[in-house]
Design goal:
The chain is an alpha+beta fold. Helix content is about 40%, strand content about 20%. β5 and β6 form a beta hairpin. α1 runs antiparallel to α2, α10 runs antiparallel to α12 and α15 runs antiparallel to α16.
């Protein structure tokens, strides 16, 4: 047998010895606590005692380690005091030590010693005897109070029995949740309950000696009488609202005890989540004929297997709108706690067309009985495009093919021009000039874009670059204005397709004033004009194929644009204020007739219910009378004024039971604190006057001299 097997056997024997002596004592302690303090206290004491015995037994067994094993083996003469060689590393031993170790192992295998501790029968029997005595005494000890007179140990006097008040000997509260929840019933000795609304409560009380009547007194005045069945008093009720109650008997109980709490947990309505579509408002595609709807409903106690989908279609426009509503029953899939509902709306079956709308909303119910709760999803709207919108979208698709993708910025124009200069050696003259002209077109578009902020008229089609021989301020014939040249003469200058400015120039003739077209201040407007001038010069150089000459103007234009972006906008009123005329007869007269009092006073706050305030103040003084009935009535009328109304009800009940309890008064006062009205804040103080203001105030305070 190996040394480790000997060690394990010794540990196991010591563990069994400790458990055999400690478990009976732990059981005796549990029986004693059960008899004295009840089932709950007995269970706790028994559990703790068993855990203590197990921990002590484990600690004792772990004390037997390899050192203890070596010492016990060395006590054997045939092992020649060499047991420590059994636990040494083989490579650390010399040949003589290895030979000695082999001899010791051979002797252990031939005749292994028994190192297990012996059973201490006297001590074990003593522990078992003590446990039996404690348990017997706890079971046989009488629980009733009162001492019988000498010579009459077999029975108590009838007068003493009649004089003793009834006491509560056992309690049981069974809570049965509603059937639709599927939850099992639970029962216990604790009379506090936190259950779902609609749960069935059943009380079972055992009192000794038996009273004449027993009932449950609730804090709001309700009474629930208990019926006697044998040695027990029973009653049942359906839980509908939260409350506090006490057990009251006639004659009164020896110990009224504390108030018990019934807390109602409301069943939450089902939750509906829209999975598809992602948005509440969806614009249908031009050729879309089906609309996919996906919902998910969840509830703690199950969702009904079916749901109702309401589809409302709005047809027509203006005042001629016709509404049609349909209700479709959908079957859900998935578990009862989380069901999914899906439906594909057939737009042709609804008869909707261009410009119409379809509104969908799903209503789901839970399994609550007798009245289920219903929740509706958000309204989902599908808007079909009208014929005009379809035509516009088609035109936009065609225009995008001929219009530039985006307006180039001034910085991008500079980058393109510099990149073109770097490629001058690799490009022929025509390609270089054509690409420079394209950058010039971008410069022109950007110049026109910024020119709109100054009220400039939009230019027509593409124009040649400006030349020095053109007369300044000349009004060209092809500037987009109608100068009565006839329809035939304007055919060659047709407006560019897709250009809003050309359409305006074709059907209108406006000469806007730059000063009236924007609210920019004159300085900012001048900077923007300077930027447009630099863009004009840059455009001319680019259109002529000289990007190197255009870059200085482009950089200046970029600098002016940055100044405009950082400038502050000034918004001016277009109409001046109309002030009342000044009465010259009263001017500088110093008379204060007709002037009101300018003292700043806070408006008087409307007086509310002062019941909590008065009770809070009265509770601060020991012995002061407090109208607890008024506080109870106020609590019933304003349950939302405090975080937990049952806490205040419990504090009121405790103070009624013990009127002289200072701790109860303070507890109720603390509970009323959140219900007290908050005092309004003080008026804001004016800022301190500066040097000029102080001189003005000093002049007002100084005595006025008589004007001469």
């Amino acid at each position: 047998m190996s040394p480790l097997a000997l060690l394990r056997g010794a540990r196991r024997r010591l563990l069994l010895i400790t458990l055999a002596g400690g478990v009976p004592l732990a059981l005796a302690l549990g029986v004693l606590a059960l008899r004295v303090a009840g089932f709950d206290a007995g269970s706790v004491v028994l559990t703790l005692a068993l855990l203590a015995v197990a921990a002590f037994a484990t600690w004792r067994a772990r004390r037997l380690d390899t050192r203890w094993l070596v010492a016990r083996l060395d006590q054997q003469p045939r092992l020649e005091d060499s047991a420590d060689l059994l636990f040494a590393a083989p490579q650390a031993l010399n040949p003589l030590q290895q030979r000695q170790r082999a001899r010791i192992e051979q002797r252990l295998r031939t005749a292994p010693p028994d190192l297990r501790p012996r059973w201490p029968w006297p001590r074990l029997l003593a522990c078992i005897g003590i446990a039996l005595l404690v348990a017997s005494g706890a079971v046989l000890w009488p629980r009733a109070t009162g001492v019988a007179p000498p010579g009459r140990h077999d029975e108590r006097p009838a007068a003493a029995t009649a004089a003793s008040p009834p006491a509560l000997r056992g309690t049981r509260l069974e809570v049965t949740p509603p059937a639709y929840t599927g939850q099992p019933a639970r029962a216990g000795e604790i009379l506090d309950a936190r259950a779902l609304q609609g749960s069935h409560l059943r009380w079972q009380l055992r009192l000794s000696p038996q009273p004449q009547r027993v009932w449950l007194q609730f804090h709001d005045g309700r009474r629930l009488p208990l019926q006697r069945e044998g040695d027990h008093w029973q009653a049942s009720q359906t839980l509908q609202r939260s409350g506090l109650y006490r057990i009251v008997a006639e004659p009164a109980l020896a110990d009224a005890g504390r108030a018990w709490r019934l807390q109602v947990v409301a069943d939450r309505p089902p939750q509906v989540k829209v999975i598809e579509p992602a948005q509440t408002l969806t614009r249908a595609a031009p050729q879309q004929r089906r609309w996919a709807l996906r919902f998910e409903a969840s509830d703690d106690f199950g969702v009904a297997a079916d749901a109702v989908l309401e589809l409302t279609s709005a047809k027509g426009s203006g005042e001629n709108i016709d509404f049609q509503q349909r209700r479709i029953t959908l079957a859900g899939s998935g578990t009862a706690s989380a069901r999914r509902f899906a439906y594909d709306v057939d737009l042709d079956a609804l008869g909707v067309g261009a410009g119409d709308e379809v509104v969908a909303r799903l209503g789901v119910r839970d399994n609550r009985a007798p009245q289920p709760q219903e929740t509706r999803s958000p309204s989902l709207i599908l808007r079909l495009p009208s014929a005009q919108e379809v035509q516009t979208s088609d035109l936009e698709g065609a225009i995008k093919k001929v219009m530039p993708a985006y307006f180039r910025s001034q910085r991008q124009i500079i980058i393109d021009a510099e990149a073109l200069l770097k490629q001058r050696g690799a490009l022929d003259a025509d390609t270089f000039t054509r690409r420079a002209d394209a950058i010039g077109v971008d410069q022109r578009i950007l110049r026109l874009r910024y020119g709109q902020f100054l009220g400039e008229e939009a230019e027509g089609g593409a124009k040649p670059p400006p030349t020095a021989d053109a007369p300044a301020g000349a009004h060209a014939d092809d500037d987009g204005h109608d100068h009565d040249h006839g329809a035939a003469g304007n055919e060659g200058d047709a407006a560019a397709f897709g250009s809003a400015t050309d359409v305006l120039a074709e059907y209108g003739h406006t000469h806007d004033h730059a000063e009236a077209a924007t609210l920019l201040d004159p300085q900012t407007r001048a900077i923007l004009k300077a930027a447009l001038d630099q863009m004009w010069q840059s455009e001319g150089a680019l259109r002529q194929g000289h990007p190197d000459k255009a870059l200085p103007y482009a950089y200046k234009a970029l600098g002016f644009i940055k100044q405009v972006q950082q400038a502050e906008r000034v918004y001016l009123a277009r109409v001046g204020p109309e002030l009342p005329p000044i009465d010259m007869a009263r001017r500088m007269g110093g008379k204060r007739d007709g002037l009101g009092n300018r003292d700043l006073r806070l408006p008087r706050r409307a007086a509310g219910d002062t019941t909590p305030v008065e009770a809070w103040r009265a509770l601060a003084t020991a012995g002061a009378a407090v109208d607890l009935d008024a506080v109870s009535r106020w609590l019933e009328a304003h349950p939302q004024a405090v975080p937990d109304p049952l806490d205040i009800a419990a504090a009121i009940d405790a103070l009624r039971q013990q009127p002289d309890c200072d701790a109860c008064r303070q507890r109720l006062r603390d509970q009323l604190w959140p219900a007290l009205p908050r005092a309004p804040g003080p008026p804001a103080r004016r800022e301190a006057a500066d040097a000029m203001g102080r001189r003005y105030l000093d002049a007002l305070a100084a005595p006025q001299e008589t004007a001469r």
